[in-house]
Amino acid sequence: MTTHQYEITVIGGGPVGMFATFYAGLRSADVLLVESLANLGGQPYNLYPAKKLYDIAGFVESNGQALTEQLQQQLEHFNPEIRLATMVTAINQLDDGSYELETTTGTILTKTVIIATGGGAFNPRKLAIDYPPSLEETHIHYFVRDLEQFRDTRVAIAGGGDSAIDWALALAPIASEVHLIHRRNEFRGLESSVDALKNSRVILHTPYLISDLRDTDPLTLELKEVRGDNIETLTVDHLLVNYGFMSDNKQLRNWDLTLDRTAIAVNSQMMTNRPGIFAIGDAAAYPGKLALIASGFGEAPIAVSQALGLIHPDMRQALHSSQLYH
Ligand SMILES: Cc1cc2nc3c(=O)[nH]c(=O)nc-3n(C[C@H](O)[C@H](O)[C@H](O)COP(=O)(O)OP(=O)(O)OC[C@H]3O[C@@H](n4cnc5c(N)ncnc54)[C@H](O)[C@@H]3O)c2cc1C
User: Fold this and answer.
1) Which of 10, 77, 170, 262 has its Cα between 20 and 30 A from that of 287?
2) End-of-domain residue from the set 243, 263, 290
3) How many domains does one find in the chain?
4) Are residues 27 and 101 in the same domain?
């Protein structure tokens, strides 16, 4: 069986990896984008979807979610292959100089690699209560992929940020009951979403924390009042936890790359110490580096052009986009 070999594999679907993938498409490269989470967007989408962004060139004002949507639309023009929920764990060089990436969903063959892993792979912050891991297959969820699976069921959501509120509002017309449990009385969400929440059929439990969980079917949750003595018991079919994400870049240490503190040292062509492997965005370090989206957007075309230069030494270097867009 022959396995396809990509020209460029971009690791990390944050804003910089998304733009690099778009740019590779613009240059007609055979490109694959791999992202460990089930969604693209990196830090802006997952950590601060509603925060305003004022330093994206050409946008007077944007926010994490709107920027991700624009990048997604731009990316889709070239319909690149995207592998979500796939974490790259190892980068092995083959005898011919190309690479084999080991991932959580299989291996990938590629001529060159562009690392855009930012501050590291995101993992959901888990409930601080012990429970059998098998519950994550049935009753406890950290990602919502299909709202329909909760139709006519009783759902509790733990968390008080934008995503928790969005889940609650989206589930209100679908689930038979929706409970939102948050440790503060105030929610950290867009004002319009918080207003919609207060006018919805979502039952609010604030300021409460989940203090115990009984592995029964349905689930029994014990809720404890924060700085108070009240205890409530809640019986639900599903618990959705939205406590945000933690990022972890310890994988980088196993990739034989020269590091500059926690990022990968690159030269002015975004090349790392390993031939054919480039790094951009927050994952890259060089003198004067600024960990900003704008810097990463500048680094992406450099890395893509250098990667293509290695694969096709006779290829003309970057043209203006109007000559390449089709
Ligand atoms: C609260 C906050 C506010 C900010 N405000 C601004 C601002 O106003 N302006 C600005 O310019 N910047 C801002 N930043 C910084 C900006 O978000 C980062 O510079 C930017 O997200 C870097 O983009 P990136 O694509 O390099 O990395 P990230 O956004 O971190 O994306 C990296 C992606 O790679 C994935 N990944 C990691 N490891 C793997 C792996 N092994 N396999 C597969 N996938 C992997 C991750 O899941 C993630 O999706 C802010 C950051 C924070 C935290």
Assistant:
1) 10
2) 243
3) 2
4) yes
CA of 34 to the centre of ligand 1 (A): 14
Same structural domain, 136 and 274: no
Instruction: Compute the average pLDDT of residues 205-222.
Output: 94
What is the best residue among 11, 43, 71 to mutate for testing ligand 1's pocket, by most ligand atoms within 8 Å of CB?
Answer: 43
Q: Indicate the residue among 243, 261, 285 that finishes a domain.
A: 243
**pLDDT tens string 59-108:** 999 999 999 999 999 999 999 999 999 999 999 999 999 999 999 999 99
Containing domain of residue 217, as a range? 126-243
pLDDT in tens, 122-164: 888 999 999 999 999 999 998 776 789 999 999 999 999 888 9
**Which residue's C-alpha comes closest to atom 51 of ligand 1?**
43
The verdict on 147 and 113 lying in the same domain is no
State in Å: Cα 290 to ligand 1 middle. Answer: 13
74 and 167 fall within a common domain: no
What pLDDT does residue 56 have?
A: 97
Return the best residue to mutate from 10, 87, 102, 117 for the ligand 1 pocket (most ligand atoms within 8 A of CB): 117
180 and 212 housed in the same domain: yes
The CATH number for 156's domain is 3.50.50.60
Domain check: are 189 and 40 in the same one? no
Indicate which residue's Cα is closest to atom 10 of ligand 1: 292
Binding-site annotation, residues for FAD: 35, 43, 48, 88, 122, 282, 322
Which letter, b or e, does each residue of 140-157 get, where b requires 16 or more Cβ atoms within 10 Å of its Cβ? bbbebeeeeebeebbbbb
